[in-house]
Amino acid sequence: MMKKSLTRAEAAEFLRSHDNFTLLSHRRPDGDTVGSTAALCLGLRQLGKTAHVLHNDEVTDRFAWLHEGLTKAAAEEGDTLVSVDVASPSMLPKAFAPLADKIALRIDHHGSSTSFTPLELVDPISASCAELIWDLLEALEVRPDRAIAQAVYVGTSTDTGCFRYSNTSAHTFAVAAKCAQAGAGVYELNQELFETNTLARLKMQAWMVDHMKLLGGGKLALCAIPRAVEEELGVTQDDMDNISSFPRTVAGVCMAATLRENGEGDSKLSVRAIPGYDATAVTEKFGGGGHKGAAGAFLHLPLAEAAAAVEKALVEEA
Amino acid sequence: MMKKSLTRAEAAEFLRSHDNFTLLSHRRPDGDTVGSTAALCLGLRQLGKTAHVLHNDEVTDRFAWLHEGLTKAAAEEGDTLVSVDVASPSMLPKAFAPLADKIALRIDHHGSSTSFTPLELVDPISASCAELIWDLLEALEVRPDRAIAQAVYVGTSTDTGCFRYSNTSAHTFAVAAKCAQAGAGVYELNQELFETNTLARLKMQAWMVDHMKLLGGGKLALCAIPRAVEEELGVTQDDMDNISSFPRTVAGVCMAATLRENGEGDSKLSVRAIPGYDATAVTEKFGGGGHKGAAGAFLHLPLAEAAAAVEKALVEEA
């Protein structure tokens, strides 16, 4: 398949000259894919287009409100399919997999990603897909209203860990300023997304402080969380959102791996690393991928064996 | 004393027409007072003025680097004294108290503050003093270099809890964008200021999760931390920086009070509240003050008695 890599202006032209858009988000959807699809959908509707977000039943309570009034249950013949923040076909929810080869345009910011669509707008410098969507909407001369601004703010802030990760740039702050200017309830969103942890989440963090394994003179951290502990502490999926960023916040830790049981005999690995360390070097050993700062993989191993394998990989790669 | 409330332009004119500046920060100095004094000092020097920050021995390791090369040990006859982020004379370090009535200009952003200088530039809307200093430096046509940008970024980010508190505005993000543009190492600063917690700090948070008292149906939280626990966990002053923001992050908590023993029989109270709740309503009962979202007081009571008094005040005011 010939891959055509578009500029923002070219992608805007594609959107202007098409209609009946159905936007696809990724599996285990985060704030960026949900916020970005919502913002793009709202922007296209403002231009008079018919646009929907394809209903993704993996969207959690934390982000579901963003898609309210925007979804449809299934793609239809003649829809222009656009994926947003989807790094590869395997990142689509299972239910969307049959649509992978029908997607016309891929909008993404993942550097380590797969070209699988005829057209793509990919900017690996963009800290979030949401910033890229904001640029695109500006190119389309969409008027940024509060709903669009809120959606972009959610994407931008979550993908930068509220402006703390190494991907945060001057452009990130500039977009956040414009979102605030356009009426995004920044404080309320921050509270909801970052500043509020349930007691269950805090107890989970307390458990991790007590059980994490520090290796490599304190530069590496490994946390393997049994499902039984999650159940005992009563954490929800939203509570566990971004839990893998927690061990890396321990002073001195350069790379941290978190393992969780997915309930089907597999262990989900998440690795976070500071600049100078490469999380993908660890995840690629297990068939995964991601960014240097944040990467993941699925291990078809029970937790204890997965932990042993990951410990070995961590020490080798650090 | 006639108090003249200046605009930014008038304050800039005052600075242009004076020299031999000595800048004063506040007691228990935070990132804002240290960053703001540093930025103003560097800006004035860029304009060819003689300027120093008065050495404040309460500045912790976390922020001391900002004042490197900028301090002098004592104010001299003929110095133009300017206080930055000082809400009242009682907020000056003990060593600076004799200078209170010699300060020519007060630059501040605290709404609930005391006019105690002949001239003042006070903007209660500004989330941090640092943003105000940035505006002032722009008015003075100072070229924002990396050192100035870093100092302002530290002030802006710390006083907004890395853009999370309710004081965060579009202007806050716009200033952060300009700091990033001017070369501030935003990621490294964020890591240093926010993303890195020692194991000791994390263990303190874990202790607080286990010992905090929730009242008022979970809307109020009270944490009284004995010095013995701080010693046992080995936390430093930097580790305890902003510890009082932690209990308020529990989902559902609207107002949270934290008490620490200061080692001299007193208990230091910090109250944090979400919009709709007023932290000063609690602290004023004990002769303290601050902002609606964040306020403090010193109680001349041992910890247990202080906790009982604060619990009563919390429940009354909520």
Stretches of chain A where pLDDT is under 50 for at least 5 consecutive residues are none
What order do the strands of the largest sheet of chain A run in, or round the barrel if closed? 1-7-6-5-2-3-4
Strand fraction of chain A equals 15-25%
- List the helices and strands of chain A in order: EHEHEHEEEEHHHHHEEHEEHEEH
Q: Note the overall shape of chain A.
A: globular
Give your account of this protein's structure.
- Two copies of one chain form a homodimer.
- Chain A is α/β, with parallel strands linked by helices and 318 residues long.
- The first copy, chain A, has eleven helices and 13 strands.
- A seven-stranded parallel β-sheet of chain A has the order 1-7-6-5-2-3-4, with helices on one face. A six-stranded mixed β-sheet of chain A has the order 8-9-10-11-13-12.
- In chain A, α9 links the parallel β9 and β10.
- Chain A is globular and about 55 Å long.
- The relative contact order of chain A is 0.10.
- The mean pLDDT of chain A is 93.
- At the A-B interface, α6, α7 and α8 of A face α6, α7 and α8 of B.
